[in-house]
Design brief:
95% helix; single chain; mainly alpha; coiled coil
C-alpha cells in the first residue's frame, strides 16, 4: 500500500465524518426550530381557546344576571306581599291574644 494513498483515505474519511456531523447538527437545529414553532403555535391556540371560553362564560353570566335581576325583583314583591299579609293577620289576632293573656295571667285556679 502506498502511504500517501492510505493518508488520502483517512483524510477522505475525516472529511466525510465532518460533513456527516454538519448534516446531523443542521438536522438537530431544524428539529429544535420546528419544536419551538410548534410550541408557539400550541400556546397561541391555547390562548385563543381560553379567550373563547372566557367570552362564552362572560356571555352566560350576563344572560343569567339579567334573569337574576328579574328574580330578585319578583322575590322582593313576593316578600313584601307576605309581610303585608302577616301584619294584617297579626293585627286581627292581636286583640284576641292580648285578652287571652290577660285572662290567663289574672285568673287564679284553685
Amino acid at each position: 500500500m502506498d502511504p500517501m494513498r492510505g493518508q488520502g483515505g483517512i483524510q477522505m474519511l475525516l472529511t466525510a465524518e465532518q460533513e456527516a456531523q454538519q448534516i446531523v447538527t443542521a438536522a438537530r437545529n431544524t428539529k429544535m426550530a420546528r419544536l419551538r414553532q410548534a410550541k408557539e403555535e400550541a400556546e397561541r391556540e391555547v390562548t385563543n381557546y381560553k379567550s373563547h371560553l372566557e367570552d362564552e362564560y362572560q356571555k352566560s353570566i350576563s344572560e343569567s344576571s339579567g334573569s337574576a335581576d328579574s328574580t330578585v325583583k319578583r322575590l322582593e314583591v313576593e316578600t313584601e306581599a307576605k309581610i303585608k299579609s302577616l301584619k294584617q293577620t297579626t293585627s286581627k289576632v292581636s286583640p284576641k291574644v292580648v285578652k287571652m293573656l290577660v285572662k290567663n295571667t289574672t285568673t287564679v285556679r284553685n
